[in-house]
Amino acid sequence: MRAVYLGNFFIAGCIAFSLLGWVASLHPIAFRAVFCLLAAIAIGWGLSWLLDFSLSKLLKISVADLQALLIGGLAMLVIGLGVFLCT
Amino acid sequence: MHLKLFVLSASSVVLWLAPLSALDKTLGIHKALQGVSLTAAIACAVTAGNIAREQAEQNEIEEIKTRAITADVVDEIATSAYISQQQRQQEAEQILNPREQLERLLALTYDESESSEPIAQKALAEHEQNDAQNSDAERAERIMQLKAKGWGKAKIILEIWGVSKGGSPKYKAAETEYEDLIQKAGGQ
C-alpha cells in the first residue's frame, strides 16, 4: 500500500510538470515565467544535492531519503515535460 | 476503498495522457480541455495518494497491534513456564531434603506463635535422636561385620571412628563407645 501511495504522488508530480509545460505553451510571457521557474527549480535542486548533509539535518530526515526525494523530483520533471513535449 | 483507489489512480493516468495525445494543441478549445483534464488528473492522483497513505498507516497500526498481542502471548507462556519450573524445583527440593523441610517448617511454626516453640524443639530433638539411633545401629552392624571378618578392636576403631590407637582422649571416647555398642549388640 505504501508503494501505491508513493506511486500516486509520483504520478501527481509528473502531471504537475506536464501542466507547467501546458501553461508555458499558452503565451510567450507564460513561457518565460515557467522557464524562470524551472531555472530556479534547477538551481535549488543542484544546491540541495550539494548541501545534502546540512539540509538533511535541517529537515530532520536521512541523507538517503533526501537524495531519493531529489532523484524522484528530477524523474518527475523529466517524465512530465517529456510526455508533454512528445505528445 | 481499494476499488476507489484503483479507479482514481487509473483515471488520473488516463486524464493525463489521453488529452495530451488525442487533442490538438493548436486549437483553443482543445487546449482548454487539456488544461482542465490535467488539473483533474492532479486532483485524482493526490486523492488516490491520500487514500493509499491512510490505508498504509492503518496497516502499520494493525501490524503493531498484532506484534503487541503476539508479544503478550509469548510473555504469558514464558511466565507460566517459569512458574511451573519453579514449582517443580521446589517439589524436588522438598522430596530430596526432608530434614531441611522439617527445619523450615519448624522455623515457620516458631515465627507464627511463640507458644509452638517447645513443640518445634521437641520435634527437632526427636528427629536428631532418630538420626543418632540409626547411626549407632549402623555402626554396631559395621562392627559386627568387621569382627566376623576377624578384625581387631584397634583396627575397627581406626576404620569406623578414624582414630588410631594411643592414649588420646578421642581414642578413649571411641573405645568407650565401641564397648557400649558391643554390649548393646550382645544384649540384642
Describe this protein's structure:
The complex is a heterodimer of chains A (87) and B (188). Chain A has 87 residues and is an all-alpha fold. Chain A has one domain. Chain A has 4 helices and no strands. In chain A, helix 3 crosses helix 4. Chain A is flat. Chain A starts with a helix and ends with a helix. In chain B, helix 3 runs antiparallel to helix 4 and helix 4 packs across helix 6. Chains A and B meet through helix 1 of A and helix 1 and helix 2 of B.
Radius of gyration of chain A over all CA atoms, rounded: 15 Å
List the total number of helices of chain B: 6
Helix content class of chain A: over 70%
Low-confidence runs of at least 5 consecutive residues of chain B:
none
Tell me about the biggest sheet of chain A?
A: none
Stretches of chain A where pLDDT is under 50 for at least 5 consecutive residues are: none
Report the major sheet of chain B.
none
Beta strand count of chain A: 0
Order of helices and strands of chain A: HHHH
Identify the quaternary structure here: heterodimer
Helix/strand/pairing class of chain A, anyone? Answer: mainly alpha
> What is the terminal-to-terminal distance of chain B?
99 Å
Give me the number of helical elements of chain A: 4
Greatest contact pair?
Answer: A-B, 21 and 26 residues
